[in-house]
Amino acid sequence: MSLKRVLEWYHILAIGVAGIIGTSWVYLNTTFYDMYGPGGVILGYFVATVMASLIALAYSEMGSAIPREGGEVAFVYPAIGPVGSYFIAWMFLLGMLAAALSFYVIGIAFLLSWIFPQLNTIPLYEVAGFPVYLPWIIVGYVSALVVFALNYMGARLTGNVQTALFILLVLCGVIIVIVAALRGSLSNFIPPFKPEMPPATAAFRFALMGIGYLSGFEMLPMIAEETKVSPRRFGYLVALSAALAGCWYMLMMFCGSLLIPWQGSSQVAPRGLIDELASIHPALGSVAWLASFLGLVTSWIPAMMTVSRMIYSLSRGGLFPKQFEKLHPKYGVPTRALLFTLIISLILGLLGRRGLVWFLDIGGVALGVCWLTAVITMIICRRKYPHLKRPFSVPAVYVTGAIALIVGLIVVVTPLIPGTDISLVWPYEYVLLIAWVLLGIVIYLVYVRNRIKELGVEKIGRGLLGEYYDEIFGKK
């Protein structure tokens, strides 16, 4: 049994772009305007897009050079070894499984509660002062099972559904653009910046937040063995996903700023574009809500897909129990890894919105660590393995890589500094982050280290890298 190469270029683009475009941009745009001015938000998204694209280039190069399932879990190995592969996987699990996937379980009920307020009943318990409702858990669990079933039935079906939902999301965006062009006014946008905040300051401060909305491109190398495109085209699609998602955000933020005067807009339209468009016609408000709903679902589907592939890759490399290497005989998907991903996300989903926001915040730091490690890997591999074929090659790699390293450090360090716009919440999120790192160390000492000794570094490397092991290290 083996993975099936079934994903076309449009599947990859839909998984990449729609996997980046999330949900909260719809209902938080007016809040952003009040904080930074629409000009600061749009310019900040531009800066964030450039920053994210620099990181994405590292994934493009390494994902094209070593197109193995598991993405950076595999391509980190030549630079840092099996410990590095485990470490990056552990941080990816925090960012995508403990944070994003678990949050979607509750997030979908949050969105549906705006349409069906009956969901806000039967509180079971509280987490950090926020109630967790029984209907929310039921809706979230049922939705998670639907996403699981879709992923279970094969990558081809998953890609087709993701593409269809992405097209529908784009159509919602087209409607928003048309409404903004016909009913909006440039006078609502002007002046674009807050008078008390210099434009450069507003842009940089929002960029620190906005780059978090551009995570998701790192998921694509996780499914590299299931794609039908050439490695070179695959590399371009990874980089293009980040750029297109950034352009989407900038366009939507501009459209929203044309509909009503942005000063104090969060008071007039507390649900952002939903309320802005609903003031024109209730059906238009439903379009904005649908865009937010689709953004959540199209992020959820590839997140479950890619986390399961990372677990499969770890198992194939010997760093995770071998049972998770099992593939479905018909659909070619790692069924046990998928089931494990589902169960963990359901358990953590019981924390509710407030508890999972903590995971989302520290998950951003974790993904920043993954980004930083990917850039470091690219630079090390350029120096240590110049013979490695790179179908997609980053231009001026050491200059580009140096700038990307600075970006990665900013993403990781800024939330750890108290007093910034994106600082972790003291003490809860700092304690949670430290606890996650310590748990990872314990698992390494108790299990992973013994597996490395038992199997040997070369066997683990061959499991992670497959045919690329000999290309990198030479035949013995």
Write a structural description.
Helix content is 72%, strand content 2%. It has 476 residues and is an all-alpha fold. The protein has a single domain (9-473), classed as Up-down Bundle (Amino acid/polyamine transporter I). A two-stranded antiparallel sheet has the order 1-2. The protein is globular and about 65 Å long. The two termini are 27 Å apart. The relative contact order is 0.20. The model has no long low-confidence stretch (mean pLDDT 95).
Question: In terms of topology, how is this protein built?
Answer:
Elements: H1 9-20, H2 24-65, H3 72-75, H4 77-80, H5 82-115, E1 123-127, E2 130-133, H6 134-152, H7 155-183, H8 186-189, H9 199-210, H10 231-259, H11 265-268, H12 273-278, H13 282-316, H14 335-349, H15 352-384, H16 397-413, H17 428-455, H18 457-465, H19 468-473
Antiparallel strand pairs: 1-2
Helix pairs in contact: 1-7, 1-10, 1-13, 2-9, 2-10, 2-13, 2-15, 2-16, 5-6, 5-13, 5-14, 5-15, 5-17, 6-13, 6-14, 7-10, 7-13, 13-14, 15-16, 15-17
Please tag this protein with its features:
72% helix; mainly alpha; 476 residues
Sum this structure up briefly.
The chain is mainly α and 476 residues long. The protein is 72% helix and 2% strand.
CATH class annotation: Mainly Alpha
Structural class: mainly alpha
Strand order of the largest sheet: 1-2
Report the uncertain regions. none
> What is the chains' assembly state?
single chain
The rounded Rg comes to 22 Å
- Biggest beta-sheet profile: 2 strands, antiparallel
Relative strand content = under 5%
As a percent range, the share of helical residues equals: over 70%
Extended strand count: 2
What overall geometry do the principal axes of the alpha carbons give?
globular
CATH architecture field: Up-down Bundle
User: What is the CATH H-level superfamily?
Assistant: Amino acid/polyamine transporter I
Estimate the mean pLDDT confidence: 95
Helix-strand string: HHHHHEEHHHHHHHHHHHHHH
Number of domains: 1
If you consult CATH, what is the topology? Amino acid/polyamine transporter I
